[in-house]
Amino acid sequence: MSRKSNIPAAPLFLRLVLWLLAAVTITPFLLLLLTSIKSKADVLQGAFALPAYPHFENYLDAWNAGHFNIYFWNSIIVVIPVVAASVLLGLLTGFAFAYLSFPLRRTLFAILTLGMMVPAEAFIIPLYYEVRYLGLINTYTAVIVPQIAMSIPFSTIFLASAMQQLPEEILEAAVLDGAGRFYILRKIVVPLMVPAMSTLALFLFIWTWNEFLIPFILVNDDAYRTLPLGMLFFQGRYTVNTPVLTAGAVIVIAPLILTYLVFQRRFIAGLTAGATK
């Protein structure tokens, strides 16, 4: 005996819409992966044509000819200190704005908010002259320090908002027991903020990994270029070899997708923290 579906019409329609949006989102990535394992002759047969056999050598050609081994490690060297320093400094400043009272607190918070709205294009020229004056052109420091400075406003506001969602009873009990500010931050706030900090770290990782303008202006030595810059010059050399070009694009975006898949649960938990308070 067949069993009728208990799903109402409205949720079923919503599911169909979501599945359609998911398909529209995933299809370009699948075509990118498919093209990256094709030969030049397979590409001419159509975007959806399957190759006779996968040409994984395209990835090896892109990795070696495009110097992606250098660009990949440069991106790792830049991303790790930017994310670690931004989360740590955002935790300290976010704690101050969430729980402490000090002069010009509202004014400083407004300045931080304005700092998020200023695009890098507005200050990239003065930044270039300052970095050149300090003799830091073509160094990792020139790429890392400005991105930490750009990340602090968002980190502060993000973590301060998350801290304000924590149960006040726990913090009040710690204060009544005589706990100091550093003890409350280290033993109470930080463990409760792990989901939010993980979400922030993932945001910063994606933004720093994809950052193009700052390394493009402040670095002109191939030994210090990151993956987005390497992809630009690689694209200029391989405009006619589409499979190798798409293999290089997959190399650039693969760490982002893998990182999101690994930390997906923490990312969603951080976004929904406090929603049921």
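(the above was protein one; protein two follows)
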Amino acid sequence: MIVNKLGRELPETIGTYKVKPYAGAHVTPAPTTPVVTKRTQRLRIPGESKLLPDLKAAIKASGLKDGMTISFHHSFRSGDKVIGQVLTAIRDLGIKNLRFAPSAVVDLKNPSIVDFVKSGTINRIEASGIRGSLGDAVLHGALSEPVILRTHGARSRAIETGELQIDVAFIGASASDDYGNSTGLIGPNACGALGYSFVDVHNAGCVIVITDNLVEYPCIPASISQQYVDYVVKVDSIGDPAKIGSGAARLTKNPRDLMIAERAAKVMAASRFFKNGFSFQTGAGAISIATTKYLADCMRARGVKASFALGGITSAIIDMYDEGLVRAVECNQSFDSVAAKAINDRPGVVEIDTEDYASAYTKGGFLNRETFGILGALEVDTDFNVNILTGSSGEMRGGLGGGPDVAGGAQVSIVTIPLIRGRTPSIVKHVFTACTPGETVAVVVTEAGIALNPRHKNYQMLKEDLKKTSLPLVSIEELQKMAEDLTGVPKPIETTDDVVCIVEYRDGTVVDVIRKLKE
């Protein structure tokens, strides 16, 4: 066994996977080898069509075979109808043992991803999270190989290093022409930004665009260029726009959550980083959306304007743009229909590549210029390590998303979390699954108090600034004691020694593993 910097005991190898232990947030150098791609050139004969009659024809044309790797984006979230149709067609063709590598797995039903694991269509999974029935199945040993969980930035890095090489990328698009110019911005099932899919499109061996809205050539606007697309297929329906936001975006009326959100906004406004030209990312959780609204109030009151908002975008941020509080909105994901439409009709709201948003190894990286990042969590421990994957019984409750990327990039990363949930403490001595290293978390905001991290790079400045306010500052140890005084100490979650998930940091090192739950 080896021990990483977070104190987590890890096997040296897990099957064929060689563990590289996490050593620090910014210490792993970039590879010196060229970017790896499976994209090939192709001679197109003038007049030749890319439009094929159905999914099975496209899959056959792609050359997909047993053991290969397929990918999808998750921009349709729980309204996705592409993944189920494609996997059903693959299963009907008798292709097996595929590596399933979407940008994330939402809890799809009818059919469920578990159905395709049971049929042998899928035997390996790499994603940012595996919620719902698939997560339950994996935690009880449904797969012989462990799932590799990566942040959004880490996935882009892994594709470009060749650790995750995609043979066939299936891209759902709400509009496309017959030559592959395609987008998520228009059409009856518009999902907004397709930022997650860009790295797949640029590097997969074959790219198949799937749409239910075939438009006249050329498709305008086009998020994905025809130069990367091999085939186009029209199906009856690719998604349900009413469910685009149902997986994450929702407003809250909970007084506790509103208190946490207001405090998070006041922490930002009290710091010396809150000044004209600052930038922020607030996400789409219930507390996050409320934080966005309170932040807008602080900006109006102080006459402060932001240079840009980043990441997954909600209507609350579009409202700030329309009001002139934000100069630019850099959007890699649209959490609701207002945000989805905004890219097409507002010049300062732009669609960006997830690699440029979140990868630590791009030559750009919007997160490297971010001031404030708001993060949700299931648990935080007294070393400020954050768990965003597993719940109180060890079940899979969330995905890594871009949380560790945001914490690693932002000047001030703020975790908003209630002290307890039901009879379960949220502030604990040791998180069950470490996802975001504590050294990258600046502040933890709860309804019971606000804890600053003495190990964070900006601790001293934040301490000086917040001491000038009436905000209730406490230590993280005090928060943990308050939580456990209310709930008692939870019983340890019992696991076997079998590793079912590997949790990678954005640099490809391992921050933790998840072991199989005891029956």
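Reviewer note on protein two: Residues 450 and 473 are 5 Å apart (CA to CA).
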